Amino acid sequence: MVLRLFNTLSGEKEIFFPLNPPQVKMYVCGITPYDATHLGHGRAYVTFDVVRRYLKFSGFQVTYVQNLTDIDDKIIKKSEINTKSENQNIKQKCREIVEKYTTEYFEVMDQLNVLRADQYPKATEMIPDMIKVIQRLIERGCAYVAGNDVYFSVASFADYGKLSKRKKKDLLAGARMGINESKKDPLDFALWKGAKPGEPSWSAPWGEGRPGWHIECSTMSNKLLGETFDIHGGGRDLIFPHHENEIAQAQAYNGKLFVKYWLHNGFVNINQQKMSKSLGNFFTLKDIFRKFAPLVVRLFLLLTHYRSPINYSDQELASAKEAYNRLVRFIADLDFRLQKTNDSAPQIELVGLQDELLEFKNKFITAMDDDFNTAGALAEIFNLVHYCRKKMEAGEIERECLIVMKQTVEHLCGILGLMIKTEAAVSDKITPEVERLIAEREIARKAKNFQQADEIRQKLTLMGVIIEDTPQGTRRLKNA
RNA sequence: GGUGGCAUGGCCGAGUGGUUAGGCAGCGGUCUGCAAAACCGUUUACUCCAGUUCAAAUCUGGAUGCCACCUCCA
């Protein structure tokens, strides 16, 4: 089994060879905490969470760094809107905004079961490093000071456009960027932005100001992961200009290959149109979670390959919810059967089952090895569940077999970060009252007093308790 | 204008040059006192036109349609 992944740089799937196996260093562009965390963030970070988990499963030791852009035009802009009336310090307000949305980001990501990165460097904590890089770029003639700003000279970097597959002249032809007199070339981008009075700023040889967005990522990733590292990820909108600019800066700085594999996730669409702030059609994760459980959202995201666009709709989420319930029911049924069975399986039968289940696992791995095909991998999980169901249907399933089935399904789901939460199935609604009613109904059923049995079921339903009659007895299910 | 990508059954969505993706929904059936779940079945699915091939939805060319990036954006 060989892991292949689609590298934006080459435009094709490549066999994954890390620079220093089994070490894998990966960097993913993080958020600018100035607004609510939305479904697009969910898609990006779930995607790279799966990448990270799968690499680990494949035996690699992953170091995962994700930055936090805690100083930026958008944060300042937001702070200005809020401070005008309150006569509050902009710097203070910026800090508050960053803190608020960073906290929210982590809360939401935890709910999606996204594992924490190893490090979350903040831009403001590495400004001296960025200044050093900018200085050297100026010395090398790759950057220049213009007024209070410093710009990177795109003309100085021959490979510019390699990642986004664009030629400089094509970029210029379609350039929609406004005229900025201090730039020598419209393609040049800011490494350092001079501060206006009152704005958060840091001292630099060329004046008070703040770092540009691109220099932040290349400096921090280089510092924490080395001059060349394995994987750099982000949303596909970051390919140009952000990642293109990162490459230009980093390689102009040290002349080394910056990143070996570039991975980019596709977008979330609403009605076939990109979800975006400017279109005002974005959904925050908090809002979505009011309608759908976080793990259902996670499953929804994994049901589509990470590079394809994914369309958001309540109907599709509802479909994902049912799919998730299918997994929950399976695990819950296993748990229920485990309570009722004490039969032991002969060793030979158990080994046979394990071998058969291994085939599903291998297919799962084949799918994942093919550029993290989570949709195909999930299909194998469902096939596995179906296979186990049929075995159970056929009867005579012993304890050990049930345990192996459960472990296999949970293991594969776990690789995708998909926890199957069955706690909800046996809910806290089991009160003595409920117990009594169920027992009463059992007696009624045995006496073939079905009218009374149905009445009791009706009563339980109203209490939010769904019951199910099985050959092994009546069981409670929580109302979904 | 430039660049890149996508077109699969009622909906969503994988995939391979010839053999069942999967999920959701519907319909029929089995089981069940009923219900639910589960299981079984479900009528030529691959935008169009050429070409390559014994064989193409899968490769090549063209057409059409849709989307994204070129501006902050995951």
Keywords:
single chain, 480 residues, alpha/beta, Rossmann fold, Four Helix Bundle (Hemerythrin (Met), subunit A), 3 domains, four-stranded parallel β-sheet, four-stranded antiparallel β-sheet, 15 helices, 15 strands, 49% helix, RNA-binding
Structure description:
With 480 residues, the protein is of the alpha/beta class. The chain folds into three domains: 4-265, Rossmann fold; 314-415, Four Helix Bundle (Hemerythrin (Met), subunit A), CATH 1.20.120; 432-478. Helices cover 49% and strands 15% of the residues. The protein has 15 helices and 15 strands. The protein has helices at residues 39-57, 73-86, 90-111, 127-139, 168-173, 213-225, 239-254, 285-291, 294-302, 314-340, 347-369, 374-393, 399-415, 432-446, 450-462, and strands spanning 4-7, 12-15, 23-28, 61-66, 143-146, 149-152, 189-194, 209-211, 229-235, 259-265, 268-270, 273-274, 310-312, 465-470, 473-478. Strands 4-3-9-10 form a four-stranded parallel sheet, sandwiched between helices. Strands 5-6-7-8 form a four-stranded antiparallel sheet. A three-stranded mixed sheet has the order 12-11-13. Strand 5 (143-146) and strand 6 (149-152) form a beta hairpin. Helix 2 (73-86) crosses helix 3 (90-111) and helix 12 (374-393) packs antiparallel against helix 13 (399-415). The protein is elongated.
